Task: structure prediction
Amino acid sequence: MTTTANILHCGRHRLDLSYPRVMGILNVTPDSFSDGGCHVALDDALHHAEKMLAEGAAVIDVGGESTRPGASPVSVQQEMDRVMPVVERLVGELDALVSVDTSTPEVMQEVSAQGAGMINDVRALRRPGALAAAAHCGLPVCLMHMLGEPADMQQAPHYDEPVEQAVLHFLAERVAVCEAAGVRRERLLLDPGFGFAKTVEHNLRLLNRMATLKELGLPLMVGMSRKSMIGKVLGRAVEERLPGGLALTSLAVERGARLLRVHDVGPSVDAINMTWNVLQEGTEL
Ligand code: 7PM
Result:
């Protein structure tokens, strides 16, 4: 078993993952935000990020490409127009540690030049040119598990082995490919990809067995906030999923997660800190 590096070097920022941290979700897809240059929406995004930082988010994750199941792809230019103005202001005005949710090599290059500190790629650097862009920009990268593309991933996801084994094998392979391409393992985080090409049963089992992934020796990130696994188990609409989500968050921390990607930062920080305090008690020699 390889040891986990606790401090990630994220451009000008350092991210200490020796305890669990929160990544706040900042959506800049057209549902919440119109085409580049719409200042009201841009100001709203900035205010929301400021609030999340005040509530204890260590990272702000900016996403300009909708990864919603069945979503159609956006052009490189559209993604750039949505993401760049937000990254610029988050870095310049709030000095935030900014993560960018992207699979696009050109976007990785641009945001790193603008001072972003992390790349969050739901496609685990499988797009042509993404490995080279990640190697060149030198930022930490979160590699997430997903089968297929957002457009088709929820059409009867099937695994020939237990889902946690499939995820383990996929992520191990991506780590090897990254290292061969010059993306050092000290820069990698791993994410099982809850809700991506998985049934509710897959998602529940994957969380229960998530400690399996610790054998890769890299920090684990998870995103379960408001996802349909909560909706399906509890019969709750999107806006009613926070209590269920907090329960999942607490379990994820117990199972080894160190970066939790959430919408509701304040409540999540409390749930995580409470859980962590319990886990720390009795671990001293
Ligand atoms: C619709 C469906 C909109 C799903 C948004 C989503 C993850 C992520 C997302 C995750 C990492 C959401 C997802 N989920 N990045 N990006 N891990 N690393 O619910 O689980 O936010 S998008």
Remarks:
- The chain has one domain: 4-279.
- Residues 32-36 have pLDDT under 50 and may be disordered.
- The pocket of 7PM is lined by residues 25, 67-68, 101, 120, 122, 142, 144, 191, 193-195, 221, 223, 227, 261 (CB under 6 Å).
